[in-house]
Design a protein that fits this description.
69% of the residues lie in helices and 0% in strands. By secondary structure, the chain is mainly alpha-helical. The protein binds the ligand O=C(C1CCC1)N1C[C@@H]2C[C@H]3C[C@@H](O)[C@@H](O)[C@]2(C1)O3.
């Protein structure tokens, strides 16, 4: 239905805006591109679902997300993977984990402040109807 496509177009605009704002934040630079498997050969043995901000943007443009909840589930892999792969007490790992936690908190704060609950409910009705 045309009205449904209008809702999903607005969802994609909202999700692109969030993703671009995160990509511009210097704290989150390490999350902007996929982890380089040449540089980290064992990464895929540890991390089963790699995720990064550029991949989120590609997924949005490929109409992968019909609700904000589906987007958040993928966004959560970015910081969860970082916490899992970088668990040590050395300063490098601690810095990555601090930024991972900042990413988690920032995504949730933006959505709490800027997503209308009724809009997300309309998206969920569209998803259940498909
Ligand atoms: O987990 C990550 C990214 C940081 C957030 C996502 N990486 C795994 C490697 C461990 C650490 C050391 C760097 O050499 C670099 O290769 C990585 C990239 O950081």
């Amino acid at each position: 239905e045309e009205q449904e496509e209008d809702v999903l177009r607005e969802l994609r605009l909202f999700l692109r805006n969030i993703t671009e704002r995160l990509s511009l934040d210097r704290r989150f630079k390490a999350f902007t591109k996929p982890v380089d498997i040449e540089e980290v050969p064992d990464y895929l043995m540890v991390i089963k679902k790699p995720m990064d901000l550029s991949t989120l943007l590609t997924n949005i443009d490929e109409h992968k997300y019909v609700t904000v909840g589906e987007f958040m589930a993928d966004a959560d892999f970015i910081w969860k993977n970082a916490l899992e792969y970088n668990p040590d007490s050395d300063p490098m790992d601690r810095n990555i984990r601090h930024r991972a936690c900042a990413l988690k908190d920032t995504v949730r704060a933006i959505i709490r402040d800027e997503l209308d609950e009724d809009f997300e409910r309309v998206c969920e009705e569209i998803r259940e109807s498909r």
